[in-house]
Amino acid sequence: MSRIGLLGGTFNPIHKGHIAMAKAAMEGMLLDEVWLLPSGTPPHKEILDDISSYDRFQMCELAVSQEEHLVVKDFEQYCLLPNFSYKTLAYLHKTYEQHQFFFIIGDDSLRYFHEWVHPEWIVKYADIVVINRNALEKDAPSGSISNDFDLQSVLEIQKKRVPGQYTIVDMDPVDISSSEIRARLLQGEETDWLNPDVVQYIREHRLYQKKETIDMRPIMEDIKRNVKASRYLHILGVMDTAANLAMRYSYPVEVARLAGLLHDCTKHMNAEDQLQYCKEHGLSVTEGEKKAPQLLHSKTGAVFAKENYGIQDPEILHAIEVHTTGCREMSLLDKIVFIADYIEPSRDKAPRLKEIRAVSYVDLDLAMAMILSDTINYLKNNHKSMDSGTLETYDYYKDVLTRRGQDLTLL
Ligand SMILES: [Fe+2]
Ligand SMILES: [Fe+2]
Q1: Tens of pLDDT, residues 240-291
Q2: Residue 295 contacts residue 321 (beta carbons within 8 Å)
Q3: Whose atoms come closest to the Cα of 242: which ligand?
Q4: Other C-beta atoms within 10 Å of 189: how many?
Q5: Does residue 293 carry a pLDDT above 80?
Q6: CA of residue 341 to ligand 2 center, whole Å
Q7: What is the Å distance from ligand 2's center to 212 Cα?
Q8: Nearest ligand to the C-alpha of residue 237?
Q9: Which ligand sits closest to the CA of 241?
Q10: What dotted CATH number matches 217-403?
Q11: Rounded distance, CA 103 to CA 85, Å?
Q12: How much distance in Å is there from the Cα of 201 to the middle of ligand 2?
């Protein structure tokens, strides 16, 4: 029989205080593991800032990736209706008869534990571990016991109301909350309370950020006027495919659509115009680009989008800039636009397009490497000039896959 701690929450976002709480319970109760249960739609709190349960789950996974005995479980992740703890516990009790469960709550939650839905079922299936964080509920919910009572007194009152096994475990006070962290992130401030991988995830997926909306219609009309009908069809295909990939990988859909719309915005310029535009705007031109000036439309496109359409978002401008050759350490949006450009529905010439389309929705890095591998083969077989950037990006993503121990036979 294993002793399993259960720590539920919205984890919006998960921070070091949550991890400390799980570890305090583990040490205090000699637990074998603590399972983190990120909620779907929680009964007690509202999910703020439109952060999906998918993102909260992914952040939990990143936060525990280096923690040996902490495990994230998805029992509650996809619940659309409020999923009450008693239901989860009934399910766990039935499914894992071999485990003894310990339900971890904060001292603030103990004050209104009797108000939860069917607390008598919770204590039936688990021992309650109360983590004493010295947390004072600033706005205590109605029905909670006043802060004038110390924790031991609160426990005695609650034991009478909901009889069961309770243990208090002390931990060092943690002076942070998810709501404070969200407020700091919204102001663009740094915080030490998050795991660096969680910070990276938040940045990459643009969570807890102010959202700007740009009217895409005048840009669409202008691009439609500038380019051939077949090119416009391709642009619309990239826009839609970028939106689909954004949905799959939890990236702001409108940002991906805009980047997709803009990616070929200087494609109407011929080679001479491209070189002239670079000269006028002080853009450097490599030897490879001199031989194949059509590659320049990514560089000129980024400047054109800024100057002509007022795009300031550095991520969008960068995604346009690298969409032909790619680069090392591409952002999520860079990859989305690069891949959408290759797999959009009106494309029909590339080999194994169906395979790459399928892989794109499973593994972006593998899709990147497959596209680059096929592009390099095509250029070689047709004796076309190749930009060194394409080769460098291919080597980089091949290395990424190798480091992950991934099978490279698809390349
Ligand atoms: Fe392009
Ligand atoms: Fe394109």
Answers
A1: 999 999 999 999 999 999 999 999 999 999 999 999 999 999 999 988 788 8
A2: no
A3: 2
A4: 9
A5: yes
A6: 5
A7: 25
A8: 2
A9: 2
A10: 1.10.3210.10
A11: 9
A12: 27
The CA distances from residue 324 to 256, 375, 382, in Å, are 17, 11, 18
Q: What CATH number is given for 2-204 in this structure?
A: 3.40.50.620
Amino acid 96: pLDDT: 94
What six digits make up the tokens of 158?
């609650």
For residue 337, report the distance from its CA to the centre of ligand 2, in Å: 9
Q: Looking at the DSSP assignment, which residues form a beta bridge with residue 36?
A: 7, 72
Q: How far is the CA of 323 from the centre of ligand 1 (A)?
A: 6
Question: Residue 116: is its pLDDT beyond 60?
Answer: yes
At 396, is the secondary structure helix, strand, or coil?
helix
Looking at the CA of 341, which ligand is closest? Answer: 2
Report the pLDDT value the prediction gives residue 168, as an integer from 0 to 100.
Answer: 95
**324 alpha carbon, closest ligand:** 1
Point out the ligand nearest to the CA of residue 266. Answer: 1
Ion ligand 1 contact residues with beta carbon within 5 A: 264
Q: What is the mean pLDDT of residues 92-97?
A: 92
Per-domain residue ranges for the chain?
Answer: 2-204, 217-403
pLDDT tens-digit profile of 203-254? Answer: 999 999 988 889 999 999 999 999 999 999 999 999 999 999 999 999 999 9
Residue 152 has pLDDT above 70, yes or no: yes
DSSP string, 196-235: HHHHHHHHHTTTT--------HHHHHHHHHHS-HHHHHHH
Ligand nearest to the CA of 260: 2
- Of the listed ligands, the closest to the CA of 274 is 1
pLDDT at 139 over 70: no
| Whether residue 148 has pLDDT greater than 80 | no
What's the pLDDT tens digit per position in 157-196? 999 999 999 999 999 888 888 999 999 999 988 889 999 9
First-to-last alpha carbon distance for the chain, in angstroms, is 46
Going from the Cα of 267 to the center of ligand 1, the distance in angstroms, rounded, reads 7
Q: Do domains 2-204 and 217-403 have the same CATH topology?
A: no
Considering only CA atoms, which of 210, 181, 213, 208 is closest in space to residue 194? 181
C-alpha 326 to ligand 1 mean position (Å): 11
